[in-house]
Amino acid sequence: MSAIDKIKAKAKANRKHIVLPEGTEPRTVQASAKIEAEGIATVTLLGNPDEVKKVAAQTNTDLSKVEIIDPMTSDKTETYSNLLFELRKAKGMTEEEAKKITTTNPLFFGALMVKTGDADGMVAGAINSTGNVLRAALQVIKTAPGIKTVSGSFIMELPDSKWGQDGVLVFGDCAVVPDPTAEQLADIAIASAETGRLLCDIDPKVAMLSFSTKGSAKHDNVTKVQEATKLAHEMKPDLQLDGELQADAALVESVGQLKSPGSTVAGKANVLIFPYLQAGNIGYKLVQRFANASATGPIIQGLAKPVSDLSRGCNVDDIVSVVAITAVKAQA
Ligand code: ACO
Description:
Elements: H1 3-13, E1 16-20, H2 26-38, E2 41-46, H3 49-58, E3 67-69, H4 77-88, H5 95-104, H6 106-116, E4 121-124, H7 130-140, E5 151-157, E6 168-172, H8 182-200, E7 205-209, H9 220-235, E8 240-245, H10 247-251, H11 253-259, E9 271-273, H12 277-290, E10 294-301, E11 307-309, H13 316-331
Parallel strand pairs: 1-2, 1-4, 2-3, 4-11, 6-9, 7-8, 7-9
Antiparallel strand pairs: 5-6, 5-10
Helix pairs in contact: 1-13, 2-13, 4-5, 4-6, 5-6, 6-7, 8-9
The chain binds acetyl coenzyme *A.
């Protein structure tokens, strides 16, 4: 069974409620019916019901089991708008602005549903940028207790099972923090390990990647990874984590044992932590294309409640998969 099929099975075992704010977007409409039909989650689409139903008719989609909420007319709108005002008034938001955002920006309406527990998670991004999806989540849902950094990982499933744990690895951060500090990098490492454990049953072996292995090069960029490694060890002493490591030392047993002898991670890593977003984002796309790997994500980590972002190039099955991931995160 593939990693994503295992995640879908987990989602079905304890059905959660996921809100899809892009309710008039054709792929989202089709995915919502599929998610309900397969029993992966209960879904709510946001949008004007007439417009949503028009898209359903155009795409031959049966929405009889899917709830539709119109943020313009919902009886929850006033409650949500008051909550948004309370959450953002210290940042200068007025009551009028809060009302306008709640009625006209479904990303915020969806995030407010999750914040209040009216939904367990949110999935968006088929027509919205990553930045806009994340901003609604960061401003309304905020980070989980004790966590300061929200980041985004990918589950990489390679055809060759010699890599990672049976061909499965987690890459982070590939989506959110452009230039993380050492503290943020340590947070990203811990969150990515947890994503691997929760979603893929991985026993995490975390490699803090660099162009240097164990002091082979000296540079401020290397120092940052060394500091992040130390911090992550202090925060999670039981986590198998090693750094700084070059990618070959992290992944190839013979190189790993040569460059970091005795390490339980070097040569066996299944969670790869990139020092910068550019490296992470480029890295996952290279592996996806060159190694014909499936890349599922970005899985947003560190929020108090689960929100997932879609690629704007996503297809219906991608949306179904990301909803399943979000539902499993909501179970935790
Ligand atoms: N972790 C925790 N909190 C954060 C983070 C973070 N990573 N980023 C911002 N915040 C906080 C801010 O401090 C702010 O707090 P406040 O309550 O005091 O206001 C709040 O969240 C909202 O921040 P904003 O100022 O509204 O948002 P910002 O302009 O900082 O943008 C964002 C945050 C959207 C995540 C930005 O860093 C970004 O655009 N990142 C890159 C996203 C991207 O384009 N990724 C690549 C594409 S994805 C792909 O290819 C798969």
